[in-house]
Amino acid sequence: MSEAESYKTIDQPAVAEYKDRGSKFLAFAHPILKVEDFKKWLHHLKKDHPKAAHHCFAYRIGTDGNTFRVSDDGEPAGSAGKPILGQIDSKELTNTSVIVVRYFGGSLLGVPGLINAYKTVTSLVLQLTPIVKKQIEESYIIHFNYTLINEVMTVLKQCNCTILTQEMQLFCNITTGIPKSRLTELLYRLKELHNVEIKKLV
Questions:
Q1: What is the pTM of this model?
Q2: Which terminus in the chain has less CB density within 10 A, N or C?
Q3: What is the mean pLDDT of residues 40-55?
């Protein structure tokens, strides 16, 4: 996936519900960019659903897809977190988390039943939220004289860059996300403007 120029993620939160033999499974899907975002959601849901038996989850973060975690939260090993992550991966999503809150209904579902329930409710919630394709960007700081503002902004706009932060004074600093696919072109065009410094953010 590292050679890719775009990735798929979800655009907005969604909730879905699934019931089996009295147990209720509520799946909450959220777009996230970092582990801290996820922790806030989990904390929030635990406060909202204090009587739930389990708060199982999975998430995958980053364009390389290497940051992920699953939790069965007391369910039998491999019966909750893995099926949730399996659904996220089957749609090739990243920067996505799904937390499933289970209210126990009195009947044991067994491992196959649990796997089916967590898989089904995750599949449902991911069908309810729009999946979007985003370009993989690299972050750079551009430093230039204010007189060049129009030229710099035109290049950034034409190359589909995302402006992350900007300081506009006599000398300007713009932090921007540059699509990988347009990087060579953009660096070439900015160098042609003279007196524009561009530095990659690590």
A1: 0.81
A2: C
A3: 97
